[in-house]
Design goal:
2 domains; 10 helices; about 0% strand; RNA_pol_sigma_r2; transcription; RNA_pol_sigma-70-like
């Protein structure tokens, strides 16, 4: 459904307690100065970070700049990263802070037209319909929820982060994220919108 869910990075997030994420060796190589490893990390994580920034800010052009800034900042501080922890959580945190700084003093969360949010899948009609329904659900959620609620739902369900990973990426506590998600669901139900 979402590109992040099928990426190696997303699969690595599911069992962080039992094995290092699949990108761990790439992180180690990039920390040692390997440009090819750094390029591969960007290839793996560019789409999820870009999608996150677009969904949160509603600014396609700015999202490209923010995504690029996110990776520049990440590689400057890569030596601080524990390779045995999922890199995507740290990247989401950097992307969030970069977006907030970028839009400081401006309206931060803007709704995008649905045709901009679509992924342009060329597959069978059924798959295209599914993508359209998913995009419509996210667009409806965007209209009903405030920015923090929407962000928590997107990270938790759109990017398939765990509750703890969502909390870490947003700077919230786990109970705080659970509360945001609960309130978001209640608001969606009250607005007669179905989400999950």
């Amino acid at each position: 459904m979402f590109s992040a869910a099928s990426s190696p990075a997303a699969r690595g997030m599911q069992d962080t307690d039992t094995a290092p994420p699949p990108e761990a060796e790439l992180v180690r190589e990039a920390q040692a100065g390997s440009e090819s490893a750094a390029r591969e990390l960007v290839r793996l994580f560019n789409r999820p970070i870009y999608n996150y920034v677009v969904r949160m800010t509603g600014q396609v052009q700015d999202a490209e700049d923010i995504t690029q800034d996110t990776f520049v900042k990440a590689f400057r501080a890569l030596h601080k990263v524990d390779p045995d922890r999922p890199l995507i959580n740290w990247l989401f945190t950097i992307a969030r802070r970069t977006a907030l700084n970028h839009f400081r003093g401006q309206k931060q969360w803007v709704e995008l037209p649905e045709e901009t949010l679509g992924d342009g899948a060329d597959g069978p009609r059924r798959e295209a319909d599914l993508h359209e329904r998913v995009d419509n659900l996210w667009a409806k959620a965007r209209r009903v929820l405030n920015g923090r609620e929407y962000e928590a739902l997107w990270l938790r369900f759109g990017e398939e982060l765990s509750t703890a990973e969502t909390a870490a990426a947003t700077g919230q506590t786990v109970p705080g994220i659970k509360t945001l998600i609960f309130r978001a669901r209640q608001r969606l139900l009250a607005a007669k919108e179905s989400f999950l």
